[in-house]
Amino acid sequence: MLEQTLWYDPSKCFINGAWVAPAKGAQLPLENPSTGASIGTIARGTADDIDAAVAAAQDALEGDWRRMTALERGRILARIGELVKARIEDLALIEATDVGKPLTQARNDAIALARYMEFYAGAADKVMGETIPYLAGYTVYTLREPHGVTGHIIPWNYPMQIIGRSVGAALAMGNACVLKPAEEACLTALAFAALADEAGLPKGALNVVPGLGEEAGAALTAHPGINHISFTGSVAVGKLVQKAAAENVVPVTLELGGKSPQIVFDDADLDAALPFLVGACIQNAGQTCSAASRVLIQRGVYERLVARMADSYNGMMSAEALRDANLGPLISARQKEIVESYLAKGADLRIAGQGKVLDDVPPGGHYLPATLFADVPPNHPLAMEEIFGPVQVAIPFDTEDEAVSIANGTGFGLVASVWTENGARQMRMAKRLRAGQVFINNYGAGGGVELPFGGVGLSGHGREKGFQALYGFSSLKTVAAKHD
Ligand code: NAD
Description:
Blueprint: H1 2-5, E1 13-15, E2 18-20, E3 27-31, E4 38-43, H2 47-62, H3 64-67, H4 70-86, H5 88-99, H6 103-123, E5 131-132, E6 138-146, E7 149-153, H7 159-172, E8 176-180, H8 187-198, E9 206-208, H9 213-222, E10 228-232, H10 235-248, E11 252-255, E12 261-264, H11 270-282, E13 294-298, H12 299-314, E14 317-318, H13 333-345, E15 350-354, E16 356-357, E17 371-374, H14 381-384, E18 391-397, H15 400-407, E19 415-419, H16 423-432, E20 437-440, E21 460-461, H17 468-472, E22 474-482
Parallel strand pairs: 7-8, 7-10, 8-9, 10-11, 12-13, 12-19, 13-18, 14-16, 17-18, 19-20
Antiparallel strand pairs: 1-2, 3-4, 5-6, 6-22, 11-21, 15-17
């Protein structure tokens, strides 16, 4: 079924507007996480392919791409968005098969990709500089210019959304991009290149080189021809990327992991909160950077709310992506092992609720049930470390100060939410929480094309999404003209 859906050759790289075999000719296996079966191969790009991609991007910056106005760039992005919309079902099927995410969630990612294109299409010609009062006889103004060649390294968990937010914003500003998707799942990155080509994006403005992180990824981050790096992935690799970028003195955006809390006070509207409390952790089988993997609950409603969350958990099913259950499989056998090691660390904790893996799932798939642990000490590894699986912890607290201290106590700072009807407390908590995004009486795990997104502390630095991303993907030039 997948082969019939693909309309491009997934075993190639996309460089300089053409589909080319990787320079060394090697391929990497690709697995369907729902079954463990092979779904073909992808290019094992290496430093040679990265060299070719960077050279193509540099040429684009000297050619048609550089000459285009912001309006024309925006129109191309709009056309890509239209082509994405026309292929929503194909893209959803490809992503569900490649990543293992339930079809509805994969479809939502494709819809988000189209929305990113719409947003950055409309924004491309609205980035403006300013005029600055200065000395007598001068006129001073600022220009927003592309960095040049931008490198984009993305993970496997939300390929379409992350391409939308990072490549979309970079192209809107006139950069030429080299994208290295994750080796576990890169089919929609290649699909995006095919659609961008069809939409008329000049050759070299977008190049895609699949491959291993330590080969193609490391070659991209160390390449002296790269002028900006956008990295989304783990803290460990983020540190390597920042070190490599330091050698070439180029700016880096790091979108790393999280251990995001939702904080529920006694006065919260529990009916409104319940679907967000559970869903924001469990979507994509918990493999979400902004998964709300900790729920901090004030003592007065603690047992009542844990019982209601447990009911939700007990009804959750894990099954193949195309059966569109609550959860699909984890991405790989290795990821499943990591999550199982955390479940083992929680052996002495209270399991308040747990879902089921359907009996007839393929034995080669990487399934785990959704699990809610209760009464978890705030300093327990399950409450401190990013698990990246369908595991959530409930932690009781008594006072606002205690909630803040627990919430801010992991080193991460990506997203947080506060559930309370007390307006003053909403404002106080929004200021006191250490996070790049704070939601009040809602939670957006990964959502919000328009909303600037990014972390503090171990969750990284720099902002993507929204209009703000356009500043990150450009540099400011000050022009001072003396005319009198
Ligand atoms: P990862 O860091 O292992 O891999 C991410 C990407 O980096 C992949 O493309 C990989 O090939 C590449 N890579 C690996 N080694 C490299 C190296 N030495 N040099 C250059 N590139 C290299 O992360 P993962 O396991 O694929 O993804 C999960 C992590 O990503 C989690 O920690 C999650 O929180 C994080 N994430 C963050 C966000 C965000 O927006 N903050 C979004 C999604 C995922």
